[in-house]
Amino acid sequence: MSDLAIGSIALFGMVGLIYAGMHVAIALVLCSFLGVLAMKGSAALAGRMLALAATESIESYVFGVVPLFVLMGFVVSQANIGRDAFDVANRMLGQIKGGLGIATVGANAIFAAITGISIASAAVFTRVAVPEMLRHGYTKRFAYGIVAGSSVLGMLIPPSLLLILYGILTEQSVGDLFLAGVVPGIILAIAFGIGVYFMARSWPTFAGSGISEEVTPLSTGAMISKSLPIMLLIALVLGGIYGGFFTPTEAGGVGALGAILIGFARRTLPTSKIWRVLTDTGQVTAAICFLIIAASMYSRMLSLSGLPEYLSSAVAASDVGYWGVILAYVALILAMGTLLDSSSILLIVIPLFLPIMKTLGIDPIWFGIVTVLAVEVGLLTPPFGLSVYVIKGTSPDRALKLGEIFIGALPFAAIMLVVLALILAFPVLATGLLGR
C-alpha cells in the first residue's frame, strides 16, 4: 500500500473516531502513530518521530503567549471588569431601543479586547447582563441569544486565543494576525448591535413586546472609575504590541500582571479567587498543549504521506477555481462546527488545507481571519455550540432549555455569515491595516 493511501486511510479513520465520540487529541495521536508505523514499518521509529514532534510543538518561546493570555483572561473575569464594561456601555447606549442588548454587545467587544476567550465572556455576561435584560422585558431566548452571539467576539477581536493558535500552527506573526482581526471584529460588533436594534423594534414576538430601557445612573466620576482600568489594560496590551514595546508573548505577561495589580488595587481579586484563576488557567493551558502536540504529530504524518502535496496538485489542475476551493473550505468548517469545538477544527483542517491555499497564492493572514470567523459560527450552532453549553451551565435558571438558547443565537449566527461573506468578497477589510 502506498504512503498516500495510508495517509488517506489515517485521515478518514481519525474523522470517524472523532465522530464516534473519541477525544480529538487521542484520535489524532492514535491515527498519526498508526499511520507512521504503517509507512515506516517500525514502532520505535514512529515513536521517536512523534516524540520529536511533541517536543518541538510547545518548546517555542512563541507558545508562551497561550498561558499568559489565558491567565489574563481569567483574572479579568474574576476581577469583575466585565460588569464594569457592561455598566459603562449601558450608561452610553441604554436609551436606544434595545439599548441593554446593544450595551451587552458593546461590553462584550470591550471585554474581548482584554481577554480573547469567548468562554469567559459567555460566563460573565450570562450573570451580569441577562438578569438586567429579563427585568426590562426581553424574552428569555433573546436575552440569552444576545449573550451567546456577542460572546464569540472574544475569538476575533485581539488578543484572540484562536488567532494565537492559528499563528502557532502556521508560523505566522501573531501581531499581524491581531492587527488583521481589528477591523473584522469591529464590523462584527457593529453588525450585532444593528441586528439587536432592528430585532428589538421589528420582531416583538422574538425579542419581547414590552421592552423598556432604563439607563444605569452613573456619575462622571463613576464612569471614569469603571472605564479607566479597562482602557489601561487595552492600551497596555495592544498599545505595547503595536507600539513595538513588547512581543505578543511579553504583552501577555505584562497584561496578566496589570490585571492582577488592578484587581488588587480595586479589592475585587481576593486571595480566595487566585487559586481558582490559577487552576482554570492550568486546565485550559494543559488542554491546549495536548491538542497542539497531537496536531503536530498529525501534521507530520500527513506530510510524510504526501497527501497535502497531492491535494494541492489536484486542486491546481482542477477547474473548480479559487472560489470553488474557498467556498468548499468554508462549508466544511461550518459542517464540522456542528460537532467539534473551535480549537479541534483548526488543528484538523489547517495542516491539510494550508498547502492548498499556498498553491493558490492566498494570503495566510487573510486566510486565518476567514478560518476563525467561520469556526466561530460553530460556537452557536447545534448540537455542539460550546458557547451555548457554557451559558446553560452558568445560568442560575435551572428551567432554561438548550433549545431556547440555540434559537436565540441563530440570528447572530446568520449575521456572522453575512460578515464572513463581506470578508471573503473584500479581503482588504482584514489586510488593509497591514498595508497588503
Describe this structure in words.
This protein has one domain (3-434). Helix content is 77%, strand content 0%. The protein has 22 helices and no strands. It has helices at residues 3-19, 24-40, 43-58, 65-78, 81-93, 99-112, 118-128, 130-135, 140-151, 161-170, 174-202, 204-207, 220-242, 248-265, 271-305, 307-317, 321-336, 342-359, 364-377, 386-394, 402-425, 428-431. The radius of gyration is 22 Å and the shape is globular. The mean pLDDT is 80. The chain crosses the membrane at residues 6-39, 60-81, 101-130, 142-166, 178-200, 228-245, 251-269, 281-300, 320-353, 365-385, 405-434. InterPro entries: DctM, TRAP_DctM. It is a multi-pass membrane protein.
Number of strands: 0
Principal-axis shape: globular
Summarize the main sheet: none
Helix content: over 70%
Instruction: Identify low-pLDDT runs.
Output: none
Oligomer: single chain
Structural class label: mainly alpha
Mean pLDDT: 80
Task: Indicate the radius of gyration in whole angstroms.
Answer: 22 Å
Q: End-to-end span in angstroms?
A: 45 Å
Compressed to H and E, one letter per element, the order equals HHHHHHHHHHHHHHHHHHHHHH
Q: What's the structural domain tally?
A: 1
- Number of helical runs? 22
Proportion of residues in extended strands: under 5%
